[in-house]
Amino acid sequence: MPPGLLPPPATLTYGPNAQQTVECWDPVGSAACRGVAVLIHGGYWRAAFDASLMVPLADDLRRNQWAVANVEYRRGGNGGGWPATGEDVRAAVAAIAASSWREQHAGPMIGIGHSVGGQLALLAADLMDAVVALAPVTDVARTYRERLGEDAAAEFFGISPDEDPALYESASPSSQLPLAVPALVVHGAADQRVPVSHSVDFVASARTAGGHVDFDSPHSLDHLAAIDPSTRSWESVRQWMVHLGSQLPNLRTSSSA
């Protein structure tokens, strides 16, 4: 456990697999909770990458009056696949929303996903109040054809988009528009793992479909820097979350309020 991040006061399980867990932290201090941030990590669907990738963001959010739920899910190599991986994230979000821990914290529930975590967050957007997608994978057929992540899509899906186009459409946020909730997409022009052109095209399509989608593309932000809480872009994300929370109507309140 990194310095400053205490063991979570709550751990939710949403299935029998050891990967189907969510670690939940309360905000630091006595100030009013701003809402619940649901973190969904990336790693191109590979088991080698886990929820610890999002711990720096979790710590930063807690220190800025957010409750934090850090989602783990099955991935390629430890029980995952499609649609199981996507179903895991939706089940995790539903479990968070229904938990007694969630009931203790007022404000919106905002999903924050990085890379394929952005893909998964966008596909679960209808279960939350808003979504932040950091350097997201939005079109998995395009990811396959461009052989991104060392052929990550071919490895994970085990079939090509030509052989099963419906499978790839079901896994692609770009094929599931319009978005049900407001979204922020942050994608650096320097990103080498997921080209920023993917997000440029996704945002354009989402807006054409009628979605409320904001877009920020810092020139020098690379792929992993998108989850670095010391960057200026992350400060902008937090500001967006606070502003959005003040604008959303009929936000659920704490049962203790």
Strand % is: 15-25%
Regions with little confidence, pLDDT below 50 for 5+ residues: 250-257
Radius of gyration, CA atoms, in whole angstroms: 17 Å
Shape: globular
Average residue pLDDT? 93
Relative helix content? 25-40%
Secondary structure class reads alpha/beta
Number of E strands? 8
Distance linking N and C termini = 32 Å
Strand order across the largest sheet = 1-2-4-3-5-6-7-8
Write a short abstract of this structure:
This protein is of the alpha/beta class and 257 residues long. 33% of the residues lie in helices and 16% in strands.
Explain how this protein is built:
The chain has 257 residues and is an alpha/beta fold. 33% of the residues lie in helices and 16% in strands. It has helices at 55-62, 84-98, 100-103, 116-123, 140-145, 148-157, 165-170, 196-208, 232-247; strands spanning 10-13, 21-25, 35-40, 66-71, 109-114, 130-134, 183-186, 213-216. Strands 1-2-4-3-5-6-7-8 form an eight-stranded mixed β-sheet, sandwiched between helices. Helix 1 (55-62) links the parallel strand 3 (35-40) and strand 4. The chain is globular, with a radius of gyration of 17 Å. Residues 250-257 have low confidence and may be disordered.
